[in-house]
Design brief:
alpha/beta; about 325 residues; about 35% helix; 8 strands
Length: about 325
């Protein structure tokens, strides 16, 4: 397959999450998902240097980046159609060492991550600081990433699973040194809201759940917000997957009823309404699905046009 001289489809706000590519999702399926994503206007592909160490044979990450690299090499012209986002900082130093011992965000760790080699590219469009590293001054990390931006190896910088105060400190240092600031946040976010003081299953980072404070700083600085696990791994629509217990409270009952109402009005699924609602909030959802039908449904969902009445109904339910 070649993408040279082909006409791109209108750009989609959906991000394709490649976490399990090369481990639980085989290469053939990964290639098929990537191809279809691009055919339908998908641009952003999200991965990490540590994906997916918990599912790999050697307990280390890198499989996802390597699969994407082989796909890019096999698809002439596609690099001009897609944007690659990867993360650094959460790779275990040896099999079984995570979370106690991980690479972190020191100058050496960022420089030694090796993502460009695995991806087979000269640069990435967005480098995420995967999770905060209190052992490393954030100023050191900012200066290190600034060097990568200056060299052309990185175009933009984002932070995933960081508290708002660390983002403010990082941006202040970037402003003081005249370097590119963090301009995007990646956090767990969906339409339902977890009970205060709880984290959904799979959110292992203390600051991984989108908070009002993180949302506020993103709005103040006009930073992009990306949402991982927006569909609760299918629980909105799959009767075999119950809504996680952290969302079991009266507010969720009202919100689920509102979702059902809007879904009936639009002929969409609950999950598609959630994706459309996130886009309407200015949040870019990440799909981590492994099946073609999941990808198709998500691509349709982000194009769903919710009316002002729909949005008001969803807001009142909160």
């Amino acid at each position: 397959m070649t993408y040279e001289n082909s006409t791109p489809a209108p750009a989609s706000p959906l991000v394709l999450g490649a976490m399990m590519f090369g481990t639980r999702i085989d290469e053939e399926t990964s290639f098929a998902l990537l191809d279809r994503f691009v055919e339908r206007g998908g641009e952003w592909i999200d991965t990490a240097d540590c994906y997916a160490f918990w599912a790999s044979k050697d307990g280390r990450g890198g499989d996802s980046e390597r699969v994407i690299g082989r796909w890019l090499a096999a698809r002439p012209g596609v690099r001009q159609r897609v944007r690659i986002a990867t993360k650094v900082g959460a790779e275990p130093l040896w099999a079984g060492s995570w979370p106690r011992v991980r690479a972190g965000l020191s100058r050496r760790a960022v420089a030694d991550a090796g993502s460009l080699d695995r991806l087979g590219v000269d640069s990435v469009d967005l480098l995420w600081l995967h999770q905060e590293d209190r052992a490393t001054p954030i100023e050191e990390t900012v200066d290190t990433v600034a060097g990568l931006v200056a060299s052309g190896a990185v175009r933009r910088v984002g932070a995933s699973n960081h508290p708002a105060w660390r983002i403010e400190r990082a941006r202040s240092h970037a402003a003081a040194t005249g370097t590119r600031p963090i301009d995007a946040l990646q956090l767990n976010a969906t339409y339902l809201r977890a009970r205060p003081g709880t984290l959904p299953e799979g959110v292992v980072h203390p600051f991984g759940l989108l908070s009002d404070e993180q949302r506020d700083i993103a709005q103040a600085y006009r930073m992009e917000v990306w949402a991982y696990t927006p569909l609760l791994t299918g629980a909105y629509d799959d009767p075999a997957k119950p809504i996680p217990p952290v969302y079991d409270h009266p507010g969720s009952t009202r919100r689920l009823a509102a979702l059902d109402d809007v879904a009936r009005d639009t002929g969409a699924t609950r999950g598609q309404v959630v994706l459309a609602w996130l886009v309407a909030q200015g949040i870019r959802p990440i799909l981590g699905g492994s099946k073609p039908y999941q990808l198709e449904a998500a691509l349709d969902g982000v194009t769903l046009a919710l009316t002002d009445e729909h949005l008001a109904r969803l807001a009142v339910a909160g």
